[in-house]
Structures are given as structure tokens and as C-alpha cells.
What does this fold into?
Amino acid sequence: MSFEGVDQREAKLIEDSRLAGYIEKSTRYVPFTEKVEVDSEGRIIGPAKPGETGHYLYREYPEVQGSKLGSQYVEVMDMLIETVKAFQEPVFKLLVERLPLEEQCFTITVNGRKEKVKYGDIGKLEGIEDPEKEKELCRKAHERAIKAKILDLTRGPLPASLMTNIGMYASFRTYEHQVLKQRAEDYPPIRQIAEDTITELRKISEPLIARADSEHGRDMVDYLKRQRQDLAKLAQEVKEKRGYPYDIEKEYGKEEVNLLTVPKHGGSYEVLNTKNLAVATLYPHSDMCFEELRLLVDTHMSNDQVNQIIRTAVAGSNNRRYKPPRSFERPRFDFEWVGNFGIFRDLQRNRFTLQVRQPLTTALGYDMPQAIVDSGMEGKFKDAMEAVDALHYDMLRTCPAYAETVTTFAHKVRWLATMDLRQAIWMLQLRTGIQGHPDYRNLMQKSYKQLRRGFPEMVNEETMPHVDLNAHELERLAAAHSTEQKLAAMEE
It folds into this structure.
């Protein structure tokens, strides 16, 4: 099923179902700054025609447009996307100056062997079959990598009302569960998505989706609504116990990475988890019951011997795609992360990590890339964030259901993440990789360091050998070069 022209809040709610596959239009590769032509119902028809006004790729909501904030909303949304456009040329000049083509290294074939060669030396070396062709591929790769980095660095002011397209593959049971959850949401557009989904699924099979409209389905929607409302009321009651003028935000919740699972009682928590992990790792290869195996490990094996079991389970992990045994799913870790909404969007797709976020807001501030400052656009960035802050304040009072849509990718959000050790090995090695967005790479690097400090026997260079703690300037140059080589081979 495809969902087209949905905003970012809708997109994240659609993608909240874990038993499904998704593909989404990426802000890391696709510019969202061109105007489009839309019909009377707001659906995208195609690119705006030359000479016509067109419409930027953000949603306009009837409830907002019919309020006193309608014109202000359009003005701020237009300004945000025009701000992104204004950043692109100065940032391009900055990157070309700092990361010139002549200084970049590329992997090319020299005398039949793959070697890293600086662009400026390609024409000087012997053993390169076609130096001019290689230089052209490297030039295109550099251009492609620069464009990608520009999108990474300038996406911050994009609003949560930004429209995107999603493809979803799932069973009828997953769709049914998703529809029921969406019907219980307090966000009108996602409730409409639920009805549109039902309409489309009925065209395929009425019986397979009938339960969503049954008495059981209606009862579940009521249950989820009451659950959300009652818990929100209790959360507000707890908040009122703060005791002003004490400002809890100055004391808690500002750290980017807060590992909530910590060793206790002088490290016994660590030893206990390590031994349990070792026992569970041996269990499928033994004929003893778990308790007997644990007793033998606990009484007859030293800590070094226990750690050797764990090291053996990950030995020879020459590729981050190699996974440890399922016993590594026993130890679990809880994090509280604070990062910009762009980070949350990128990390949410790690389905086996349980992630629960708080509402999008301007209260936690925003991230501004250093490249924006260095390109002389700091003032423009701050002006855009101030305009969003003022609009968000007014939206909370006039159209609260839509207040989140005016926040941006740069604004910070707080969320909980729970993962087991096996998922941590996968996620931290993947998301610290060289091609990752620098924002989430930084968050993942900090998460790895906290886990390693707290649980050194389980999180280290042997269990996670492919964690990349280095800083990279032109992250996707090698990938871009590989793409250009493949395109050239297809043309031959």
C-alpha cells in the first residue's frame, strides 16, 4: 500500500507498526525545496509549471487555514523551506572550499590492484587503464557526495508538516491493528488515513478486514482512547507536583544520551548479566537444564573463563552483518535520548529497538550545524527558529492538535529506547558507520561509550568490532564513487 502526501507526524505513526516493511522518500537524498502543483483537495499533481506560483511540499490543514492563524501558518512554512533553499549555495561554497576534489582519495585499479589514490595523482600514476575516465568518475562522485552532504546539513528548518510518500508491505492482520490504533489517535489526519486504508483494503477482501469494523474493533478503539486520555491526565497530575519555582528541566533531561540501565552494588549487576549471557549462549549446545548449567558456570568458572564464552560467540565477526547467537537478546538496556527530530526519523526504522517518543515541541531547543554558522547563515537560522517558536505557542492555544506540525527537523525531541544486546550490536555498528548522518552518528557513538563504561564485558571492541568512533568529512564519497562506477559499467 502507498501513502502519498502525508506529513511527518502521519508518517511516523504509520511506521509505528513493527511487523511491516516500509520505504520512505528520504530527505538525505531528495531535495524537498521545489514547488509542486496541487489539486483542490491538496493532492500533489506534479511539479509546478514554469511561470506558475506552485506550492511548497507542506500540508495545509482545513482546521488551521480556517482559524486566525491560517495566513501566519502559510507564511512561516514558506519561510522555512525558503530558508533551506537559501542555505544551499553558501554551504555548497563552504564544502567545496574545505573538501576540494583534488585532495580527496578514491579506490581505483592500479596495475590490477585496488589502491587508494588522491584525485590529483590519478594522471601521474602508471598502471591506470584510462586515467581520464577515472578522473571523470571521481569528479561525478565528488559532486554527488557534496550534494548529499548539503542536504544533510541544511535539512534542519524543514517542518514536520512536510509531505512525503511511504510504501508499506504488511499482512491484513497488521493493517487491521494499525487501523484500530490510528482511529484512537487525537490527530485528525491520521484518523482519516485509517478510513482511507480500510476503503482500499475492502477492494481486495472485505472479510479479511471486517474485524476492524466489528464490535470488538470498536471496543478496542474506545479502550485505546481511554488509555491515552487517562494516562495523559495522570502524567499532568504528576507534573503538577514539581513545586515551582524549581525548574526540573535545568536538573534533568538535557543530556543527549542517558543510559538508564546501570551497574548496581559494586558491579554485581554486570557479573550477573555476563554469567547469565554465558549460560544462555552454551544452553543450545548442552544437554543439561538451565539451572544446572548456571550452577556449574557460577561455581566452577572464573570471570575470565565466562568472558571467553562471550568472546567465542562473536569471534570472526568480520562484517557488521554477522550476528551473534540469540542468547545475546537476554541482556536489555534502556536509554533516554534527546536529539533533533531528524535523528528520530532516521533511527525509528530500527524496528527491534523499542522507541517511545514524547510530543514534538520547541521547548527543548534545536540543533544548528557548525557549517551553517561557518557559512554566515547563523542569523537566518535563528530567525527561522524564533518564528516557529512564536507560531507553535499560538498553535497550542488555537489549534493544539496541529501544534506538532510546525516544529522542524532541527528541534529536539526526547524519547526512550529499549534494546537487547544483540540489537545494540546491530544498531550501534550500523548507525556509527561512515555513511550515516553526522547527527545520529554522534548520538550512537555516545551511546556506545556509555554502554562500554557500564558493561565492559559485554560491550567492547570484540563484541562490537565495527563501531566507528572516527569523524568523517565527506561521508558518502566512497559510496558515491561506487555508484558512478556501476553506472559507467551499465553504459558499456
